[in-house]
Design brief:
Layout (H helix, E strand, L loop, with lengths): L1 E5 L1 E6 L1 H10 L8 E9 L4 H4 L3 E6 L4 E9 L2 E9 L1 H8 L9 H8 L9 E15 L2 E10 L2 E10 L2 H14 L10 H15 L1
Antiparallel strand pairs: 1-6, 2-9, 3-4, 3-7, 4-5, 5-6, 7-8, 8-9
């Protein structure tokens, strides 16, 4: 189990902008990999009300539980590596964290860690990454709630370096700055919009 500060900058893209970045950065289709994000909350969305986000991320041969909590202008990630078998088992059952670091974070927000959590959204991402000094450039194609969106992310060890890098990329490729919510919020909004339409 580990904790780290997530310093990340992101911007939604059109399909054409995504393709331009993919080609302009000389990325390769063979380097694209898939991952599945499964998002959890209580029935009353108590985590969301505290600006917390809990997910399981499943890749080809690894899985990880992550609780994100506010930390200054960024996010604190509390991570637990689990097996694929554990991840798929959690998908089929109610989950809660009665002890451990995730429970400690939940308690610090006056949440009962024994409260059952349920899946409320799932999102599949096709991702490709490129290292740039102390940062990672990430291009995502996301599928959720019958929607597809495209996203540029820059993950960095330094807020200043990460912000400068994403600004340079957007200037170089003539991409306008767009308000970009986190994936969990976009999935939540899309799901509730779809439910309202139904």
């Amino acid at each position: 189990m580990k904790q780290n500060i997530e310093i990340e900058f992101k911007n939604l893209l059109t399909e054409n902008e995504y393709n331009s970045l993919f080609e302009g950065l000389h990325l390769k289709t063979k380097d694209v990999f898939s991952q599945e994000n499964i998002y959890f909350d209580t029935v009353n969305f108590d985590l969301k009300s505290k600006k917390l986000a809990l997910r399981i991320r499943i890749k080809e041969d690894t899985a990880e539980i992550t609780l994100k909590s506010p930390h200054k202008k960024h996010l604190l990630e509390t991570n637990i590596t689990i097996s694929l078998a554990e991840a798929y088992s959690i998908k089929k059952s109610t989950v809660y964290f009665a002890s451990g670091m995730i429970a400690d974070v939940l308690k610090s927000y006056d949440l009962d860690p024994r409260t059952p959590l349920k899946i409320f959204a799932q999102l599949k991402t096709e991702r490709v990454e490129q290292i740039n000094r102390n940062s990672i450039i990430v291009l995502d194609k996301n599928y959720y709630a019958d929607k597809i969106d495209y996203e540029l992310e820059v993950e960095s060890l330094s807020a200043e370096e990460g912000e400068q890098l994403i600004d340079n990329l957007m200037n170089d490729f003539s991409i306008p700055k767009r308000k970009t919510l986190n994936k969990i919020i976009r999935a939540y909004n899309a799901l509730h919009s779809k439910t309202a339409d139904d």
